[in-house]
Amino acid sequence: MAFEFERLEKDSLCAARLGILHTAHGTVKTPCFMPVGTLGTVKALSPDDIRECGAEIILGNTYHLFLRPGHELIGSFGGLHNFMGWNGPILTDSGGFQVFSLAQMCKIEESGALFRSHVDGTLHSLTPELAISIQEALGSDIMMCLDVCAAYPSGEPVIKAALERTTRWSKRCKEARKREELALFGIIQGGMYPHLRSQSAYELLELELNGYAIGGLSVGEPSEMMYELVEHIAPLVPRHYPLYLMGVGTPEDIVECVYRGVDMFDCVMPSRNARNGLLFTQRGKLVIKNARYADDHAPIDQECGCYTCRHFSRAYLRHLFQARELLVYRLLTIHNVFYYQSLMSQIRTAISDGNFLTFRQEFYNKRREI
Amino acid sequence: MAFEFERLEKDSLCAARLGILHTAHGTVKTPCFMPVGTLGTVKALSPDDIRECGAEIILGNTYHLFLRPGHELIGSFGGLHNFMGWNGPILTDSGGFQVFSLAQMCKIEESGALFRSHVDGTLHSLTPELAISIQEALGSDIMMCLDVCAAYPSGEPVIKAALERTTRWSKRCKEARKREELALFGIIQGGMYPHLRSQSAYELLELELNGYAIGGLSVGEPSEMMYELVEHIAPLVPRHYPLYLMGVGTPEDIVECVYRGVDMFDCVMPSRNARNGLLFTQRGKLVIKNARYADDHAPIDQECGCYTCRHFSRAYLRHLFQARELLVYRLLTIHNVFYYQSLMSQIRTAISDGNFLTFRQEFYNKRREI
After folding, report:
1. Annotated catalytic residue: which of B93, B141, B147, B263?
2. Closest A-chain CA to B82
3. Is the pLDDT of residue A270 over 90?
4. Which residues of chain A lie closer than 8 angstroms to B331, CB-CB?
5. Cβ contacts of B323 on chain A, cutoff 8 Å
6. CA-to-CA distance for A340 and A348, rounded, in angstroms?
7. How far does B285 lie from chain A, in Å, by closest CA?
C-alpha cells in the first residue's frame, strides 16, 4: 500500500488542520505526537503500554539502531516492527541530528558524515545512501532524508551551506530508495533565517517527496523565535503534504505549532521527564518527589484516565520514586505519554468541532489555575 | 473471614500434599510460591503483571516497609493491598531476618532488637509487639511472629538461646495481636541441630498458631543439609497446619521440599536473577547476555506461555539487556516469575494426579537434556 496523507477539516480561523496518514502498518490521525523509541523500545514501556496510552505511531532512531543492535540484525527479523513487537506505524529519523549531537567525533564531507560511535568509539560513515538502506532494513513506514544540522547559533554562510548540502543529500536519498511503499520525507533546514528556510523549502519541494519536516528547531532558541519560524515555513508547504516539526516539544509548543499548521510532532520530553519524576497535568507540572505528596491519596491528575492514575496514589508513586523502584519509571512514563496523547486527542476534537481557538484559550486558562 | 487451611489430596508415596489457604483476600492453592515484594512492589512488576504470571499471593517485607514509607502511612490507605494496588493475599515476614542481615547495627535484648536503619542510620527498636502492630497496619493476611535469627554457623548454645527467645517472642506476638482475621504463623528455629529444631517446633506448636514456618535455612548450608532438616521438621508439624519454608529457593529446592511436605515458599531468586539476566527454563538456566543469543529468533523458552515468550525473541531481549533498557527488567522478571508459578502449577497437577514421583524424575531428566 502506498503512503497517503488524507486531508480532513481545517480550522477556519487559524492554520490548525485534521488529517489521516495512511501507512503500510495502519492509519494515524493527525495532528499526532510520536513517542520516541530510541533503541527499539519507548523507554520503560511495552508495545501494549504504548498502544494503551493512545499512541498510533512511534519514532525510532536510525543512528542508535544502526550502532546497536545493527540494521542487518533487525532486517533479519523482517524489520523493526517484528523485532520490537510493535505492529503500528513507525517513523525513523535520518540519523543526522544524532551524528552531529551524540557522536564522539563528526566530520562532514560531501559524501557523508564520518563519525565515531558514542557507544564504543568505532569509526563509521553515514551517507545518504546508507541512511536509506538502514531505514529500509528497519522497514520504517516513514523514512527521513539525511540532513545536515548546523550548530545553533551559526552564521548565515554556515547555515546556507548546510541547507544546500541537505538538498543534495535529499536528492541522493530519493535516488537510493528501493522500497516505494515506505514514505520518504525531506527535512527543511535554514536555521533561524526565514529566507534560508524559504530556499530550503523550495529546493526540497522540487523533489516531490511524501511529506516535509522542519528540522533544526528546538535547539536552544527562544520559543517565540521557533513559533515565528514555523509561522513562516508552514504556508510554504502545500497543504497536501503532511508537515512534521522534529523534536518538539512542550505541551505549549504543540498547541502553538498546531495553531500554525503542523501535523506531526515527536519529543523525548514525556518519557524522559517521567523518568526524572516530572509529570504533566492539565493544570501544569507536578514533581513527584516533593515532600507534599508523601501522604497524598490522590492520583497524579484527578482528570486523567491513564492506567497509573486509575490505580495508584501520589503517595505510592512518590514512595516508589524515592526508593528508585523500577516499576515507577514505567508508571510515570505511562502517565506522561498518555497525557500527550490525550492532548492530541483534545486538539483533534477541537479542530473537528471548529473551536480550536477556544480550546487553545482554555488550555492556557487551566494552566493558570494552579 | 477467619483464616483456614483446607487439606486436599496427599501423595501416597511421599509427603507432597495439596491444600488451599483461605484468607481475607481470597484463596491460594498450595504448594505455592510467593514472589517477594520488598517495598510494596515486586520489583519491575505491576499488580496486573503479578496476577498474569499466575501468582496468587505475594510477600511484603515488614522491615523495609517500616523504614520506607512507614506502616502508619500504609495504614492510612487501609493497608498494603490498597497502597500498592494488589487485591490478592499478602504474607509479611516479621522483620527479624532483615534486622539481623541488613541493619547497620543490631543488638538483641529480651525486649526486642535495637538496630540502625540501613537507609539513613536512624535508631529503631523492633519488639514482638511492634512487629505485630506494623503487620496489622499493613493488613497482612498472614503475619509472622518476630524471630531471632542466629548467624550460620553458630554453636549449639547460641542456637538454643535464639530458639527459646523466639518462643517467648512468639508468645508476646500472639498476645499483642488484635486482628484475629489476620493469620499468625510461628517460625521454627534451631539452626542445623535436629534436636533443637524439634524443641522449637514443640514449643511453638503449644501456642496453637495458624501455621508454621521453617526459618534459618538457605543461609549458606549445603542443599543436602537443608533437605535433611526439612525432612526432620515437616513430620513434627501436624498436617492441618500449613508449612512454609522461608527464603527458599531454587526450582530443585522447591521440588525437593514439596516432596518432603512443604506447602509454601518465597524467594527473591526469580526476580533478582531476572534483573541480572539469568533466566529459568525447563531445561536449565539461560544467560541472556551471551553472544550466542545475539541473532537468536527463538523466545527464551519455546515451551513457556508467558507474555515475554509469546512476544519477544532472545535477540531482542539481549539487545535491550546490553543497552540496559528499563523494559527488559520487567520482561525478564515476568518470565522468571511465570516460570516459578508454572512450576508450582505442574507440581500441584502432579500431586493431584497421584504421580508426583514421576514428575520429580521428569523434572530432573529435562534439566539433563541441555
Report:
1. B93
2. A312
3. yes
4. 46
5. 39, 68
6. 12
7. 24
For B273-291, the pLDDT digits (tens) are 999 999 999 999 999 999 9
Distance of residue B317 Cα from the nearest chain A Cα, in angstroms: 9
- To the nearest whole Å, the CA of A140 is away from the closest chain B CA by 18
B320: chain A residues, CB-CB within 8 Å: 39-41
How far is residue A75's CA from residue A261's CA, in Å, rounded to a whole number?
35
Q: Which CATH number fits domain A61-267: 3.20.20.105, 1.10.10.10, 3.30.420.10, 3.20.20.70?
A: 3.20.20.105
Task: Give residue A16's pLDDT.
Answer: 98
**Mind telling me how many Å the CA of A216 is from chain B's nearest CA?**
28
pLDDT in tens, A92-142: 999 999 998 898 899 999 999 999 999 999 999 999 999 999 999 999 999
pLDDT per residue as tens digits for the range B6-42: 999 999 999 999 999 999 999 999 999 999 999 999 9
Locate the chain B residue with the closest alpha carbon to A316.
Answer: B83
Q: What pLDDT, on a 0 to 100 scale, did the predictor assign at position B367? A: 87
What's the confidence (pLDDT) of residue A103?
85
Strand ranges across the sheet with A105-108: A105-108, A113-116, A123-126
Residue of A nearest to B299 (CA): A83
Rounded Cα distance between B189 and B325, Å, is 42
Site from A43, A46, A68 to mutate, B interface, most B CB atoms within 10 angstroms? A46
CA-CA-CA-CA torsion for A304, A308, A311, A315, nearest 10 degrees? -100
pLDDT band at A250 (very low <50, low <70, confident <90, very high): very high
Report the SS3 class of residue A105. Answer: strand
- Please give the average per-residue pLDDT across B316-339, as a whole number: 98
Contact A85 B322 (CB under 8 A): no
Average pLDDT (B259-284) is: 97
Torsion sign (Cα): A158, A159, A160, A164: positive
**Which one from A11, A141, A263, A266 is the annotated catalytic residue?**
A266
Per domain, the residue ranges of chain A are 61-267
How far apart CA B233 and CA B236 sit, in angstroms, is: 5
Q: What is the pLDDT of residue B226?
A: 98
Who's near A57: CB < 8 A, 6+ residues apart? Answer: A21, A23, A28, A32, A34, A88, A89, A90, A91, A141
Average pLDDT over residues B295-315: 97
For cell 518519557, what's the residue? Answer: A271
* Yes or no, beta carbons of A297 and B77 under 8 Å apart: yes
**Residue B166: DSSP 8-state:** H
CB contact under 8 A, A47 and B311: yes
Say what the pLDDT of residue A369 is.
65
Q: Considering the domain B31-274 in this protein, what is its CATH number?
A: 3.20.20.105
Q: Is A266 known to be catalytic?
A: yes
Q: Is the pLDDT of residue B369 over 80?
A: no
Distance of alpha carbon B347 from alpha carbon B363, whole angstroms: 10
Q: How many Cβ contacts (< 8 angstroms) between chains A and B?
A: 97
Q: Shortest Cα distance from B316 to chain A (angstroms)?
A: 6
Q: Check pLDDT > 80 for residue A1.
A: no
- Mean pLDDT value across chain A: 97
Residue linked to cell 527458599? B248
ipTM of the prediction greater than 0.95, yes or no: yes
Q: Write the DSSP assignment of A191-256 as a string of letters.
A: TT-HHHHHHHHHHHHTT--SEEEE-S-SSSS-HHHHHHHHHHHGGGS-TTS-EEETT---HHHHHH
- A327 with B295: Cβ contact below 8 A: no
Does the beta-carbon distance from A325 to B43 stay under 8 Å?
A: yes
Contacts of B325 in chain A (CB under 8 A): 39, 41, 43
Q: Which amino acid, one-letter code, is at A176? A: A
- Check residue B234 and give its pLDDT: 98
Grid coordinates 525432612 are at which residue?
B231
